[in-house]
Fold this sequence. Notes:
Elements: H1 2-11, E1 17-20, H2 28-31, E2 35-36, H3 47-70, E3 81-85, H4 88-104, E4 109-112, H5 113-119, E5 129-133, E6 137-138, H6 141-154, E7 158-161, E8 165-171, E9 174-180, E10 183-186, E11 190-192, E12 211-222, E13 231-233, E14 238-241, E15 246-250, H7 264-277, E16 285-297, E17 303-306, E18 312-316, H8 326-337
Parallel strand pairs: 1-7, 3-13, 11-18
Antiparallel strand pairs: 2-6, 3-5, 4-5, 8-9, 9-10, 12-15, 12-16, 13-14, 14-15, 17-18
Keywords: Oxidoreductase, Thiamine biosynthesis
GO molecular function: flavin adenine dinucleotide binding; oxidoreductase activity
Pfam families: DAO
Amino acid sequence: MGTACALRLLQAGYAVTLLEKSLPGAESSAAAAGILGAQSEVSSAGPFLELCVASRALFRDFAAELRDLSRVDISYEDSGVLEVALDPAEGRLAAGRAEWMLDRGLNVEILDRDEARKLEPALSESIVGANFYADDHQVDPIRLAQALAGAVAHLGGVFLSGERVVSLLTEGERAVGVRTQNGDHLAEVVVVAGGAWSAQIAGLPPLRTQVKPMAGQIIQVETRPPVCQRVIYGYKGYIVPRADGRVLMGSTLEDRGFDKAVTTEGLQRVTGMALEMAPGLAKSRFVQAWSGLRPATADGQPVLGAGPLDGLFFATGHYRNGILMTPITAQIIADLAQGRAPALDIAPFAPQPLVDAES
Length: 359
């Protein structure tokens, strides 16, 4: 989020400095699977869906732009996502999801068992059916982080790594910069894009919702030849095949603070989920496992938009959809910084607490 916002602000004519406690994209971005799941990840129609769909529509051109600026290919793949139902109860949930998506005009194919397995033979014979979301694609998050950092550097952005932001600096009703453990940095515009660590900055105004870490464990295996071609998404997890034979299996949802440990219980849960959907992965070669910290909010909505102080903006709390919402978030922040109204309704994501109309 930080590097994407920096890119758009640089293109708008701002001089931009990014303060990073480690490396850009080294935390939740690097730990993500990279599913652009505007349909597979979103549970109902509404402003959040519209935000996700709008961002997904930007990604093909966004990938080309980043490649031109950074010479890094983010491995944008448009193979689609199969949302698999393993039993009749999940089948009913999938049917309900397809209904509201079709009402919204989204692209959904409803497949029975044989149709789903014809499209993806790796699927278990015990599935009852699937929804196919042809417009949900994928990218490689690590390459995305590398491309964004390269693009920002190419345009003159300044990176200060190892700078832990301690507090916000204000003058009256305006944000004027931040304080780190190494000193003060003054700025006309301050964008809080600290992921799960965003709420640890002292001096921030009260937020609409809590932002906290939610751990997720992922296993990477390797298969040759590939076992599957498309992202397989279930009600317990997902399988993400890469073109080079890597396969990501994830992910747990664990509320355990800033603990990024990989646990035997988590590995068992992820592996069991994946083999239930695609048994052929049992013979894949284990490569590595990791855990990341998603920036989760109490109300399930991102914290996105202008804060109550002039010059203060938020781009955090994207939870499971940070990779997907990268281009739209950057565009919205750049619009707001320049005094322009975003094209989408972002009122539900406002950083400040909503005021009761009767109070």
